[in-house]
């Protein structure tokens, strides 16, 4: 289904295919030969989304452009089932495996692989040809790429990147952080009340 959101309708190349149960919403451009499979969601939540030629977005993947961070996915990429990309740049010929996650402000260099259940944290930059192994986490620039068992070292790097401030504009030490975060973010997401099918 294609939806107009905040006055912007998706632009789908004549040769691109969107499965009937997929959702494409707002300022989204799908280039030549793009395939969007069942259950995938591609949505512009304040930032545009551009998906390059012959890229495949598999079942139940989620791709979100967000305020301050557009999504650009280059040509000839594969976004695996249940993968999640929010506000990131994915250069051409990248493989994002099943369950991989790439967060706001991240850059995944050309020809890289983010393997099953691996994470590229916000504002992390992967050089071209980088591999993030199954279940590992990449944090920072230059990135620390480590298994989840190295939690303390990963946590120290994550704190420096300051997720609450970067994504929501909120100080991590705010006493009612989750109250402010959910109310502010909920108001932004409430803008979907006027969406219409196109």
What name does the CATH topology carry?
Answer: UDP N-Acetylglucosamine Acyltransferase, domain 1
Give the CATH H-level superfamily: Hexapeptide repeat proteins
Mean pLDDT: 93
> How many structural units, i.e. domains?
1
Number of helices: 3
The oligomeric state of the chains shown is single chain
Strand content: 25-35%
Which secondary-structure class do the elements indicate?
Answer: alpha/beta
| Helix proportion | 10-25%
Q: What's the count of strands?
A: 24
Main-sheet strand order equals 23-22-19-16-13-10-7-4-1-24
Q: What CATH architecture do you see? A: 3 Solenoid
- Based on CA atoms alone, the radius of gyration comes out at 17 Å
* CATH class placement: Mainly Beta
Shape: globular
How far from one another are the termini? 8 Å
Helix-strand topology string: EEEEEEEEEEEEEEEEEEEEEEEHHHE
Stretches where pLDDT is under 50 for at least 5 consecutive residues are none
The major pleated sheet works out as:
10 strands, mixed
């Amino acid at each position: 289904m294609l939806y107009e959101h905040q006055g912007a309708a998706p632009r789908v190349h004549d040769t691109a295919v969107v499965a009937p149960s997929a959702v494409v919403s707002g300022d989204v451009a799908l280039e030549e030969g793009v395939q969007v499979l069942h259950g995938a969601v591609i949505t512009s939540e304040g930032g545009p989304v551009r998906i390059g030629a012959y890229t495949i977005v598999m079942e139940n993947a989620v791709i979100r452009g967000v305020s301050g961070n557009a999504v650009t996915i280059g040509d000839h990429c594969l976004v695996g089932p249940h993968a999640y990309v929010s506000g990131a740049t994915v250069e051409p010929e990248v493989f994002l495996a099943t369950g991989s996650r790439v967060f706001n402000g991240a850059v995944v260099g050309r020809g890289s692989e983010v393997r099953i259940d691996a994470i590229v944290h916000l504002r992390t930059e992967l050089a071209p040809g980088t591999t993030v192994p199954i279940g590992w986490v990449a944090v920072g620039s230059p990135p620390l790429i480590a298994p989840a068992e190295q939690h303390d070292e990963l946590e120290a790097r994550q704190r420096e990147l300051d997720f609450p401030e970067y994504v929501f504009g909120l100080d991590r030490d705010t006493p009612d952080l989750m109250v402010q975060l959910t109310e502010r973010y909920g108001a932004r997401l409430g803008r979907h009340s006027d969406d219409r099918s196109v």
